[in-house]
Amino acid sequence: MEAIGMNKPKALLVLHGKQGLNDEVRSAVNEWRQLGNELAVRVTWEAGDAARLVEEALAAGYRTLVAGGGDGTVREMAQALLDSGSDASLAVLPLGTANDFAHAAEIPLAPFEALTLLKHEPVRVDVGEMNGEPFVNMATGGFGSKVTATTSEELKRVLGGSAYLLTGLSRFSELRAVWGRFVAPDFAWEGEFLALGIGNGRQSGGGQQLCPQASIDDGMLDVCIVPAPADAVGTLGTLLSGGLLGIDTVSVTARVPWLEIEAPDEFDINLDGEPYAAKRMRFSVKRRALRLHLPKDSPLLLDEPLLRNQREPA
Asked: What's the CA gap between 270 and 133, in Å, rounded?
C-alpha cells in the first residue's frame, strides 16, 4: 500500500472494513475520480483503525475526510478530528444498517450521490458530549439503548433497520423501568422511565424519531423521556414500531443547553451505537465544533440564535 500523502489527494475516504468489497462504493469512487476529483481510500481492519487513519491523514495534509460506514463510524472519525484540534471537514458516505443520522440530515444513501456533497461548502455543526464522550447524532438510554446494543450483526444484515424492532419485541420479558433524576436550566423531572433520547440529531434505532425537532446548529440538546406507565409493554411497543403516533402524549420533552442525570444504579446509554453505562451523566454541547458537508437544505440545519442565553454552572 502506498504511503498516505504521496500525491495529497483532495479527500480521503475511511471505509468500514465490512464495506471493503462493496461494488457500489467502488463504482462510485471510480466515477468520482473520472470527473477529475481526487479521492484516496483506506479500509479499517480492527478497532481503533478509523481514528488512526484520521490522524495519519491529517499529518499528511488532508483537509477533507469521508466517513464510509454507519453512525458509529461518523462518531469515531468526528472524535478523532475533535481530539486533533484540526479544522478539517468531514463528509458522510452512509453505509450502516440504519443510517439514522443520514436519513434525518437527508444525506443521499446512494454512494455517488453522497460523494457529490464534497462539492458543498462544509457548515459548522454542534457535537453533543456525555461525560466528555462525543456523539454526533443521539444518545439513547434505558431499554431502547439495550435493544440497539444487542441486535446481532447477522440480523441487521438480513433485516436492516427492522432488526431493531424484532429484537425489541423479543426482549419484552427483560423490560425494566429505570429511575432517574433529570436537571437542566428551567427543567427538572424525576421518576421511572422506559426510554430516553437526547438528540443532537433526531432519530436512532432504525428510525425512532425521539427528537423530531432537533437541530445540529442551535447550541441545544433536545430531550425526550418516555415515563414508565402501567401499560409499559404497550407503550414501548408503540415506541419500537417506528410510527411513534401519539408518543408526544406520553413523553416528557425539553430543549436545553446541558442536562445532568443521576440514578441509584448504573443504566445503559448508547452514543451513536457505542454502549456505555453510568450512574451520573452530564450532557453538554460543543458549539459548532465540527465542519460537516451537508445538503444545503438539510432539515437538521436551523441556523438560528440560541433559544436561551444560559450559562452552564461552574
From this structure: 11
**No. of H helices and E strands in the chain?**
9, 13
CATH class as words, domain 133-286: mainly beta
User: Low-confidence residues of the chain, pLDDT below 70?
Assistant: 1-9, 143-176, 230-249, 303-314
**Out of 56, 192, 260, 274, which one is annotated catalytic?**
274
SS3 151: coil
pLDDT of res. 147: 47
CA 135/CA 284 separation, integer angstroms? 10
pLDDT at 195: 82
Using left for φ > 0, alpha for ψ between -120 and 50, and beta otherwise, residue 289 falls in: alpha
Grid coordinates 495534509 are at which residue?
61
163 and 155 Cβ atoms separated by less than 8 Å: yes
Residue 155: what are its φ and ψ, rounded to 5°? -65, -40
Contacts of 132 (CB under 8 A, 6+ apart): none
Residues 130, 276: contact at Cβ < 8 Å?
yes
Domain 11-127, classified CATH 3.40.50.10330, yes or no = yes
DSSP-derived letter for residue 249 is G
In the prediction, which pLDDT does 307 show?
A: 39
**38 catalytic, yes or no?**
no
Residue boundaries of the structural domains of the chain: 11-127, 133-286
pLDDT in tens, 244-255: 444 555 789 999
313 DSSP 8-state letter: P
